[in-house]
Please model this.
Amino acid sequence: MTLPKFRLRRRDVVCQQAVELVTDYLEGTLSRADQRRFEAHLAGCPHCTEYLAQMRKTIELTGSVAPDDLPPQVQDEFIALYRQWRADPPGPVP
Amino acid sequence: MRGGHRLSPVSQDTDAELLDRLRVGDEQAFVILVRRHHAAMVRLASSFVPSVAVAEEVVQDTWVGVLRGIGGFEGRSSFRTWLFRILVNRARTAGERERRSVAVGDAGPAVDASRFDETGHWLSPPQHWVEEADDRLSAVKMADRIRSAIEGLPARQREVVTLRDVEGLSSEEVCSVLDISEGNQRVLLHRGRSRLRQIIETEFGRPG
Model:
């Protein structure tokens, strides 16, 4: 694993570190101290506040990707699979 | 509005209800379950195997496994978690991938280093586009763009982003399905989401 792990030794978080902490922040896995530093940085940095908003929007947009429905032909294959299973179950009978 | 996951338009029944019907031999319940989960299963399986055709075989094989194992499924996890676990096991076998090798892969930074100055402050800060993304026309276009962007992610990132952000599984469920640690899950999620944000940013014609 080669994740650049920012240890927040210094008191202040800089932008380049902040963008790497966004997921841990959203996941609620930052330590309380790191969360405080991160939020203190956001309070003074409109760019990173924007960045966080964009990550939230990205997650929302990703969640709106609707799954494709099943083509009828594929559906028929599954019905055949099911009927075959019912006729001749290859394992323990349900 | 959305709802790709949870309930499919073909039925309002929950997975658990459909499973009960399937247990007593209801073919229609089987078809609804297949329709509901098929796209996600093919997407997920595709991460492990070289072609969509093989992925579809893995999905079929998974449903056979479901039918075979339905009597033993006690509902301790959600049906979807159980289903995806079966799928991933079969896909791994089909793809002959190492079970435990979690290559983070493509572990670049969330934002290109050239956009920061030497003290780590923004040189080229993100431009505002969040509201533009809500515009309906760009939303439709964006969904297509995001779908192909997800497909372009490195496999491990794609698996985690698909399960978490498209399918809406919890981090615990994702770890269970993929058999990875919480830490690895977060790293992969971070890389994947960061990459998707870059792509959306580029789509809006802003620095990327």
Remarks:
- The domain at 15-95 of chain B is CATH 1.10.1740.10 (Rna Polymerase Sigma Factor; Chain: A).
- The helical segments of chain B are 15-23, 27-46, 52-69, 79-95, 136-152, 155-166, 171-178, 182-203.
- Chain B touches chain A through 63 residues (CB under 8 Å).
- The CA atoms of residues 147 and 166 of chain B lie 10 Å apart.
